[in-house]
Amino acid sequence: MICSVILDRGDIARGGFRLEASFNLPGTGVTALYGPSGCGKTSLLRCLAGLEPDARVSFDANSDRQWPRRIGYVFQDDRLFPHLDVAANLAFARDRALPGRGINIDQAVDGCGLGSLLRRSPASLSGGERRRVAIARVLVNGPDLLLLDEPLTGLDSVASGEILAMLQPLVAQIQVPVLYVSHQLEEVVRLADGLLVMRAGSILADGPLAQVLCRVDLAIARQDNTASILDGQVSGHEPDYGLTDLSVAPGVTLSVQGMSADVGSRHRLLVHARDVSLALDKAGDSSILNILPASVDTLEEIDAFSVLVRLAIGDQFLLARITRKSRDRLGLVAGATVWAQVKSLSLMAAYY
């Protein structure tokens, strides 16, 4: 379904803001909304939720799916009812759900790990605990569309990891579209199927996650944390070394440290462009375990000193950020055959 949103808050030259965004909203799965602070991500969610009365929101009239009317919104500041304990907060949402919609309270409690918190007040909870209650409450209410506005804001790495691990199975269970706002690539890669890149009130790119991340023409490619993802299947383990082998293309395997996964399961690898080096010949004696055959697809100068190289590895793409001198010294051009080198310790696995 194609969604269109327009919100006009006055002359931009005088400090106003105009949001004009059109994008595809799949029927299920997570679509990440990614962009710098102030680009309009939260405003877009508020428009979809009906919280901006001046906004104009429309959808493709030719779609055979109806626009979601019941919208669940998890705000950055939780917004739990302070006078109700956790159990009562969940019951409030359950009592206003349509019959047969959403997940029941027991499922929400188990899925969000709230069993020991039910009789506690919101004021007595940690930030991560409050966020888990807010997510559970929305899910119990049975939304047609779930909006998550930077749900990990203000949380430490432990709490963030717990919520990401919690969200994955819950999102798969509810089978509704999810729009997830973030400016952290690690979150996006862990959860998202699709990616919307936003800047200054407009959608610059809209598509499958792996494809959009590898768009060298986007500003996202010029960030220090520019990264790509590789999908792979676990083909084996080396327990003596704590390594897992992940097949990403026919005959191409990556060694990843610290994974605990069943053989045959599929995973994504987040590979930062700064962690990929290139060579014309395959190294012999080297501490780098991952040396992958690749071909240069595209080269893009991203500033006065560096170049972003998009590499084809089978039917997937990998980004490498190198200096202009390295490009010139290697004589890299589109179509060239190279070896991409990635340290095992630099890889991050995302489970799905």
How would you summarize the topology of this molecule?
Blueprint: E1 2-8, E2 18-24, E3 29-34, H1 41-48, E4 56-59, E5 71-74, H2 86-94, H3 105-112, H4 127-140, E6 145-149, H5 157-174, E7 177-182, H6 185-191, E8 194-199, E9 202-208, H7 209-213, E10 227-238, E11 243-249, E12 252-257, E13 266-272, E14 276-279, E15 290-301, E16 306-313, E17 316-323, H8 324-330, E18 337-342, E19 348-351
Parallel strand pairs: 3-7, 3-8, 5-6, 6-7
Antiparallel strand pairs: 1-2, 1-4, 8-9, 10-11, 10-13, 11-12, 13-19, 14-18, 15-16, 15-18, 16-17
Helix pairs in contact: 2-4, 3-4, 4-5
Give the class-level CATH name of the largest domain: Alpha Beta
Strand line-up of the largest beta sheet? 5-6-7-3-8-9
Task: List how many beta strands DSSP finds.
Answer: 19
Taken in chain order, the helices and strands follow as EEEHEEHHHEHEHEEHEEEEEEEEHEE
Helix percentage: 10-25%
Q: DSSP strand (E) fraction?
A: 35-45%
Question: How widely separated are the two ends?
Answer: 24 Å
Averaged pLDDT: 89
User: Overall 3D geometry?
Assistant: globular
Overall tally of domains: 2
**C-alpha Rg (nearest Å):** 22 Å
Largest sheet: 6 strands, mixed
Extract low-pLDDT stretches: none
Label the CATH architecture of the largest domain: 3-Layer(aba) Sandwich
Report the CATH superfamily of the largest domain: P-loop containing nucleotide triphosphate hydrolases
Counting helices, strands and paired strands, the structural category is: alpha+beta
Tally of DSSP helical segments = 8
Written account of the structure:
The chain has 352 residues and is α+β, with helices and mostly antiparallel strands. It folds into two domains: 2-221, P-loop containing nucleotide triphosphate hydrolases (Rossmann fold); 227-351, RNA polymerase II/Efflux pump adaptor protein, barrel-sandwich hybrid domain (OB fold (Dihydrolipoamide Acetyltransferase, E2P)), CATH 2.40.50. It has eight helices and 19 strands. Strands 5-6-7-3-8-9 form a six-stranded mixed beta sheet, with helices on both faces. Helix 2 (86-94) runs parallel beside helix 4. The longest helix is centred in the middle third of the chain and has 18 residues, at 157-174. The protein is globular.
